[in-house]
Amino acid sequence: MIKSGKAPIPVLILLLIGITAISFSSIFVKWSEAPVSVQAMYRLFMTAFMMLPFVWRKAPEINQITPKQLGLLFLSGFMLALHFLLWMGSLRYTSVASSTLILALEPVFVMLGAYIWFKERTSLSALVGVAIAFMGIFLLMGASRVSGSDASFTGDMMSLLGTAAVAVHMLLGQSLMSRMSSLVYSWMVFLSAAMCLGVYNMALGIPVTGYPAKEWGIFLLLAIVPTVFGHLLFNWMMRFSSASVVSMSVLGEPVGASLLAFILLHETMNAWQFAGGFFVMCGLIWFLRYKQPHSEPAPPIRESVPQL
């Protein structure tokens, strides 16, 4: 991907801001009683609306988007909508810790997608990390089955499928943002995703009005905190940093979200969940340490996990 220079703010600070912001996402979803498809729709519509004053100046760039790029933008938006629908829905069934730990597999799914579509090879060492991470996922999901909690297992599966969806969205974004600004890309994708969710709500007869002020406040918080200061910030960072560095934000979200869930929602982890989470995090750290483009030297391990 084409980089456009040095970020005006140190990347580490941007990562910490983004991780803190996205860690609140699952908390807001848990606090809301509205259907997750409605939460996600308003989250994206409100974000797209707030971006309008900045996107307005990019009208010439938008006019130059080709039909093929428009199709890929819509596909990226559809996959983002599917991700929100599945991942936010998973929080109705499973814990914040389990859901966000599974979501942390995003860079692994990105690697698998890059291999399938772009024939991008990875090292054997990185695959060892993948194996360790999936061992942790099996422990998490196995713990749900052993405990007899079918709901938790369903939630874990939804999070896993949602992670695969967002990986496709990320791969499309890496390709498209080499040809357009992150602002235009993000606005077009957020709007496309919101429209997809709007169609979904109408098709299923899910009400989109009549919610109390508390719910509208949560919709707004979802738009401002995890979307603008999370997803939008990470999209912008991809102009200055490699996708592997930005993907390391997934290491911080399970930690931040689990701590917030413990403090605000009084959620705890049992021994099996803790063991599974430990293997997931160790596997991801290993994977991100060795998953580097062949043309770039692997960075020191201390540069890979500063946000933890």
From TrEMBL:
<dbReference type="GO" id="GO:0005886">
    <property type="term" value="C:plasma membrane"/>
</dbReference>
<feature type="transmembrane region" description="Helical">
    <location>
        <begin position="40"/>
        <end position="58"/>
    </location>
</feature>
<dbReference type="InterPro" id="IPR000620">
    <property type="entry name" value="EamA_dom"/>
</dbReference>
<feature type="transmembrane region" description="Helical">
    <location>
        <begin position="246"/>
        <end position="265"/>
    </location>
</feature>
<protein>
    <recommendedName>
        <fullName>EamA domain-containing protein</fullName>
    </recommendedName>
</protein>
<feature type="transmembrane region" description="Helical">
    <location>
        <begin position="216"/>
        <end position="234"/>
    </location>
</feature>
<feature type="transmembrane region" description="Helical">
    <location>
        <begin position="70"/>
        <end position="90"/>
    </location>
</feature>
<feature type="transmembrane region" description="Helical">
    <location>
        <begin position="124"/>
        <end position="141"/>
    </location>
</feature>
<keyword id="KW-0472">Membrane</keyword>
<feature type="transmembrane region" description="Helical">
    <location>
        <begin position="271"/>
        <end position="288"/>
    </location>
</feature>
<keyword id="KW-1133">Transmembrane helix</keyword>
<feature type="domain" description="EamA">
    <location>
        <begin position="154"/>
        <end position="287"/>
    </location>
</feature>
<comment type="similarity">
    <text>Belongs to the EamA transporter family.</text>
</comment>
<feature type="transmembrane region" description="Helical">
    <location>
        <begin position="184"/>
        <end position="204"/>
    </location>
</feature>
<feature type="transmembrane region" description="Helical">
    <location>
        <begin position="96"/>
        <end position="117"/>
    </location>
</feature>
<dbReference type="InterPro" id="IPR037185">
    <property type="entry name" value="EmrE-like"/>
</dbReference>
<dbReference type="InterPro" id="IPR050638">
    <property type="entry name" value="AA-Vitamin_Transporters"/>
</dbReference>
<feature type="domain" description="EamA">
    <location>
        <begin position="12"/>
        <end position="141"/>
    </location>
</feature>
<feature type="transmembrane region" description="Helical">
    <location>
        <begin position="153"/>
        <end position="172"/>
    </location>
</feature>
<keyword id="KW-1003">Cell membrane</keyword>
<dbReference type="Pfam" id="PF00892">
    <property type="entry name" value="EamA"/>
</dbReference>
<keyword id="KW-0812">Transmembrane</keyword>
<feature type="transmembrane region" description="Helical">
    <location>
        <begin position="7"/>
        <end position="28"/>
    </location>
</feature>
